[in-house]
Specification:
92 residues; mainly alpha; 3 helices
C-alpha cells in the first residue's frame, strides 16, 4: 500500500468521528441553556473528536475490523455523553 493510499484509508476511518464531533458539539452548544454553557465550542469539538476516535479504535480492536454497526452505535452514545458532560447539563 502506498503512502497516499494509507493516508486515505486513515482519513476514511476517522471521518465518522470528526463528523459526529462537529455536529454534536454544534447541537449541544446551540441547545444548551445560555447561563449553563460549559466548554467553549473550540474546546468541545476536539474533545468529542478524541473520544470518537478512541471509540472507533476500540471497536476495531474488539471486532477485528472496522465498520460494525455496534461501533457506530457506541460512537453516537459516546459523542452524546461527551457533549452532555462538556456542556455541564447534569448540573440542573
Amino acid at each position: 500500500m502506498s503512502f497516499w493510499a494509507a493516508c486515505i484509508h486513515l482519513a476514511n476511518f476517522v471521518y465518522p468521528a470528526l463528523g459526529m464531533a462537529v455536529l454534536v458539539s454544534l447541537l449541544a452548544h446551540w441547545l444548551a441553556p445560555k447561563p449553563r454553557r460549559g466548554l467553549k465550542l473550540v474546546h468541545a469539538m476536539p474533545l468529542n473528536a478524541a473520544v470518537g476516535i478512541a471509540v472507533l479504535v476500540s471497536g476495531l480492536v474488539y471486532f477485528g475490523n472496522d465498520g460494525k454497526m455496534a461501533t457506530y452505535a457506541a460512537l453516537i452514545a459516546a459523542s452524546a455523553g461527551t457533549a452532555f458532560a462538556a456542556q455541564g447539563l447534569w448540573r440542573r
